[in-house]
Amino acid sequence: MITTPRLLLRPWRDSDRAPFSAMSADPEVMEFFPEPLSRKESDHVIARIQAHQEKYGFCFFAAEVIGNAAFIGFVGIQHVPFKARFTPAVEIGWRLARRYWNRGLATEAAQAVLNYSFQTLKLEEVVSYAVSGNMRSRRVMEKINMRHDHAGDFDHPLLPVGHSLRRHVLYRLRRSEWRTLQQRATAE
Length: 188
Ligand SMILES: CC(C)(COP(=O)(O)OP(=O)(O)OC[C@H]1O[C@@H](n2cnc3c(N)ncnc32)[C@H](O)[C@@H]1OP(=O)(O)O)[C@@H](O)C(=O)NCCC(=O)NCCS
Known about the structure:
The chain is α+β, with helices and mostly antiparallel strands. The chain contains 5 helices and 9 strands; from the N terminus they run ββααβββαβαβββα. Coenzyme A binds next to strand 5, helix 3 and helix 4.
């Protein structure tokens, strides 16, 4: 469990299935994915996340707004599930239901997940990636001080050649950089 001033990041529950299915069927939420998901597909995503948690002890955590909303989406980390030039690597990722956007919630959760990744898990590096036009997601990456590795931009290997969502940008943050930023923030 990870807590922030407004959020609890926690393991998934059966009661998350319906709201996760609803947000994964929303074309706006899924704008940068090949298709909105059916209930069967969103349940499969949860099963994969839970298997990751079981195997590695961390995952894309279910997110709730404390005392306000039992499930709003996910924010967390996972091993990148495909091969690319930058893998093996651990990625940070997020997906929230539309009505919770633009309140700083993804950024707040992501900052806490980075602390957990570097302080508790002692990961050397965390990466993140997005379809290059996904400016909301890129903005979250920038706000948590990840830096765009232009040379690392890549074509997503699970999308067919010519697919409009294939081109991805890669962002990185190393533990040493994160530590320096933390020290600077404390000194100010
Ligand atoms: C990406 C996502 C998680 C961001 O969640 P969020 O809680 O709204 O994020 P935050 O409020 O912390 O930050 C969003 C930032 O994007 C900015 N933003 C919003 N719409 C934007 C747009 N069209 N273009 C550029 N920036 C935009 C906001 O202004 C804010 O930046 P600011 O604080 O500097 O003003 C959410 O939009 C989402 O779930 N999207 C769909 C799923 C998705 O794309 N996931 C990522 C896949 S890589």
